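Sample pair:
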Amino acid sequence: MSDAEVGQLQRLRAITAEQLADHRPRSATVLGVAGGNGLDAVDPARFDEIVGIDLNAEYLEACEARYRGALGDRLHLIEARIDRSLRLSETDLVIANLIVEYVGVDEFAAFAGVNADRIGVLSVVVQRNDDEGFVSRTEYTSAFSGLASVSSDVDAGRLVEALDAVGFTEIGAVDHPLPNRKTLVRRDFRRRWTSGSSEA
């Protein structure tokens, strides 16, 4: 993804910085944190807690090595599958960049629904493919060929509808065009009600 022709990794880092700056949370949870891409945008003085969740233990070890020194005991890394069985600690902001493609819209909405009373703002990035498949064609394409079998395109409109059904209202939308006729589509949501309360 960091091939110069695509620029996707660099753009995702910039988007993570925007998500943090736009919402100015004291606590944030990053789903699919991998090796910590975007955590370099975290100002430790402004945060009480950063939680990174990923299914891949090796990615979490890399994240630990890169960011423990800067973030200290504010950083909490959790090895877990992102689905409806996952329960979050209360957090001001959840960042979910290029996660829904692997989890699926219905399962991601179910995850959001069971955690609705713990999430302040949910910021999601999905990739829209206007021309190609999920993995862009570069000299490294073969290394990512397996991703196509576990990912699927996500319609942003369907995502908005699914999250609305579990109590989240869309509060922001930004599109980030990429080369190769792709767009990183960011949609932000705020919980509309909490468990046991009526809709606001």
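Residues 133-150, 195-200 have pLDDT under 50 and may be disordered.
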